[in-house]
User: Fold these one by one.
Assistant:
Number 1:
Amino acid sequence: MQARFTAKIGISIVKTQLNKYLHLPFWYFNDCGSANLINSTLSIPIAYVNGIVRSLFAFFSEIAVITIIIIGILLYKPLLLGLLAIVLVPTAIFTYRALRSRSQKIGDRINELRPISYGIISDLFNGFAELKLANKQQRFRDELIIKQTEVQNLDAEAYLFSLLPSRLIEMVAIIGVLTIFLYAIFFPSASTNLIALVGLFAAAAYRLMPSMNRMLTSLVQLKQFQFSVDDLESYRDAIYN
């Protein structure tokens, strides 16, 4: 159901982008360039669906799961909720703040490089005979490889950022469990209750961590694909002027 819904959104955006550019005044259309127009009409809708729409679906579904878990913990043992909040919430906030700016820069840069690559490869294939006769194929090829190398490196960095939230939250949750366990060892008088609390903390953290990881990943992706929102809004005013 969700896949079909997002597919419909994607084709609707393609139609909207086509209509937008086909109704542009000539001077705006001419300034855009064919590579930018192709990127904006075909690649941007895919980026918007994958990075914005699906990320929002994932974010709000995990919010619902986390809310249910929190209500259950609050009714059963409020102290446990306080411990989880102290351990997990600052980590989530720190992780998001550390990744959001760089993630947005990565997305913006990839979106800048993509139409440049489209333009180069279009020149390579459409001007095949002319470039071969002028002995310029190698220069265009090298330029394309340089741009695509940067794209691949940025994509690898974005993938690393998608893994970091889960690793950081898992590490902090383990540190939280160890802290409570060590406290129980050094203060034996409270060990009975604390050992039980360790078990509850570990169980609750184990269930909350995947949802928090997916929620943070969605937020990071929303920043990374912010360029798609900006692109969809571009040139709208020009149509009516």
Note: DSSP finds nine helices and no strands in the chain.
Number 2:
Amino acid sequence: MDFHWDMHKISNMKKLFAAGCSISTRCSGKTSYPEELAKLLNYELVNCTAGCGSNYRIWRMITKHIMDGNLTSDDLVTIQYTEPTRREFWSRFPKKNDNYKDEYDDGSILRFKFDSYLWQLNKEEIEFLRTYETNFVNDAFEKENFEINNFNFQHMLKSNNINVVFIKTTRIVIIDFF
């Protein structure tokens, strides 16, 4: 059997860049909306979603893809924002078996949201996140930071002619009583 690969079609396949928190990931489901949308559009999926993800993570990852030339005006981005209080911090401690961290340089990226100190594996990270949550989060300041960063991000997307869809979500909790 002789296979002929059309490299032009393969290399020019449009991409769907999906960015968001656990709402955009598969979590305990069999599939996610980014996976289904990529199939529907026949786009290659570049999944930038993460459980406990933050808006800062979204801005960092999508901007880096644009800077590196991976994301162009031929592609599509979906953005699912989360709470403005979520953050990322670099930690000198490696990822280990933690699903809420990414390896980075010689350490890891630690994801913060309220109560995230409860599932950390390292005592220094537990103490840091608990201290940060208790003493260094202010809703008005976080809202202002979000508005400014979102403004800058949207103008960066526009100046690069990036096709983007912002997805507004609400959390739905299903309780199985039976």
Note: The longest strand covers residues 15-20.
